[in-house]
Write a sequence for this structure.
């Protein structure tokens, strides 16, 4: 594989009614075998991310995925590959999971220890599963042009999540570089902050009614901030 070839990967964040998320260990023979991850895998030619997830969940765990929403897209360079991870959330799946490839698996809460170590970049992402759909004040929000370094300090002391209010794509790119948990944007700039229709971080749309939540989630938002 040439160094700069980007591999697109579909990643499923399947959330049970009790808020727990499906995680599984990586089968023997793959890079990072034995580490835990969200189920998913590489896109095949012509597949959408949702289609790839439907296939991978069936192949790996026998789970049937009915619907899923874009959550965010994240690039990461491993030694073995440069991946573009397309995370999608779903509460709409059925079937009892089975280990079709010899993996361990289970449903876990964000603050619970899995039997094995998660892939390093997945831990932060698992925490974000608890971000509420409708924004609450228990999250720290910074305006990026102000003192953004403060974010790292605040994160440890008081707030579980740190987000940034972003006026445009440049701000969102800064929030990505600083690994913020979420961004808040106005409805009129939402589209401009996406990467080919997918957010780059979980995104709240500001100043819209809570009753429009589903509409904005269909378009890729994590949630709304009325
Ligand atoms: N499925 C999954 N892959 C992840 C996660 N986090 C993360 O960095 N990755 C990376 C690891 C791998 O480099 C890549 C997924 O590739 P893979 O080898 O598991 O995909 P696959 O099942 O299609 O593999 P194969 O059949 O081609 O062997 O994405 C995650 O949470 N879930």
């Amino acid at each position: 594989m040439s160094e700069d070839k980007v591999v697109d990967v579909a990643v499923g964040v399947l959330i049970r009614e009790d808020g727990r998320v499906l995680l599984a260990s990586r089968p023997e023979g793959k890079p990072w075998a034995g580490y835990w991850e969200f189920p998913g895998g590489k896109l095949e030619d012509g597949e959408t991310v949702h289609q790839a997830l439907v296939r991978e969940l069936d192949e790996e765990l026998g789970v049937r995925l009915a619907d899923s929403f874009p959550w965010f897209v994240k690039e990461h360079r491993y030694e073995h590959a440069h991946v573009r991870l397309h995370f999608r959330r779903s509460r709409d799946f059925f079937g009892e999971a089975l280990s079709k490839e010899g993996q361990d698996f289970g449903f876990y809460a964000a603050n619970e220890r899995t039997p094995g170590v998660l892939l390093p970049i997945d831990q932060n992402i698992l925490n974000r599963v608890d971000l509420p759909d409708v924004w609450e004040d228990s999250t720290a929000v910074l305006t990026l042009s102000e003192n953004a370094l403060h974010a790292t300090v605040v994160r440890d002391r008081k707030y579980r999540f740190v987000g940034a209010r972003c006026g445009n794509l440049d701000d969102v790119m800064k929030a990505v570089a600083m690994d913020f948990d979420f961004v808040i944007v106005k409805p009129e700039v939402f589209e401009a902050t996406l990467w080919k229709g997918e957010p780059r971080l979980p995104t709240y749309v500001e100043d819209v009614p809570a009753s429009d939540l589903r509409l904005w989630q269909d378009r890729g938002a994590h949630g709304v901030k009325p």
Q: What stands out?
A: The pocket of 8-OXO-2'-deoxyguanosine-5'-triphosphate is lined by residues 9, 11, 30-31, 37-38, 40-42, 76, 78, 81, 83, 85, 119, 121-122 (CB under 6 Å). Helices lie at 49-61, 120-127, 150-157, 169-177, 187-190, 213-218. Residues 24 and 105 are 4 Å apart (CA to CA). The chain has two domains: 5-128, 130-225.
